[in-house]
Amino acid sequence: MATKLTGTVALVTGASSGIGAATARELAGQGASVALVARRKDRLEALAAEIENAGGTALAVEADITDRHQAEVAVGQVVERFGRLDTLVNNAGLMLVGPVVGADAEEWDRMIAVNVQGLLYTTRAALPHLLKAAEQAPRQVADIVNIGSYAGRVASSGFGVYNATKFGVHAFTESLRQEVTQRHVRVGVVEPGAVESELGTHNKPEIRDEVINPFFDETEVLAPEDIADGVTYMVTRPRHAAVGELWIMPTEQA
Question: b/e per residue, 163-178, with b = 16+ CB within 10 A?
Fold first, then answer.
């Protein structure tokens, strides 16, 4: 049975867990052929098999998108396999937080590489194919959805560099939208609040206890599927309907 994304191809970065995996399942459920891009090959292959067993189509592509060449090769593999690319979901992310004084500068480098450089490299590689898809059947529109964060709009103590990367995602989305919106490539950003995922698990235990957990304790935590629902909402809308930014915020605890 045809669904809203039948005949289209979606590429999801950071697809080996959390929001990326949930988004890939949702898009496949809407009929898209889904390319799963991340570094953990075993997880990608397991998710691809799950999607295929459910009647969908998936391709596992092992790549580190912080390497520009690997990002370009990954996009090339997707287009070679499926012949087109209609949707790009820039989901790969890393949250390493803590005070500026005494912070690990190498952790900052890692986070900037994933959250900013990886997004830029993948978008640059994918954009020519998205522009081409926007001119062709079946939908005559293409989509880029960047996964940002509430931290891209509101700064918090201890989240300084993470805030900077996510503010950058928001600004880049706005700028790119102005460049390509008249060419039928819709560009939007999903900015969630607290999400239960692997995003912050790479922090030292003391940082999680001092900075992350207190924030999570103040609000209901979202599931990755909540964010996947938002992405799917954005890319399945009618051709001329675009959502520039979508906040997905948890309900405040009573």
Answer: bbbbbbbbebbeebbe
pTM (two decimals) = 0.90
Separation CA 10–CA 58 (nearest Å): 9
**Catalytic option among 121, 150, 162, 233:** 162
Does 162 qualify as catalytic in the annotation? Answer: yes
Q: 3-class DSSP state for residue 244?
A: coil
Any idea what the Cα angle at residue 196 is, between residues 162 and 176, rounded to 5°? 45
What are φ and ψ of residue 191, in 5° steps? -120, 95
User: Span 54-82, mean pLDDT?
Assistant: 98
Is the peptide bond prior to 205 cis by the omega test (within 30 degrees of 0)?
Answer: no
Separation of alpha carbons 155 and 145, rounded Å: 22
Contact 145, 88 (CB under 8 A): yes
**Residue range 102-133, pLDDT digits in tens:** 667 888 899 999 999 999 999 999 999 999 99
Q: Give the tokens for residue 20.
A: 């990326």
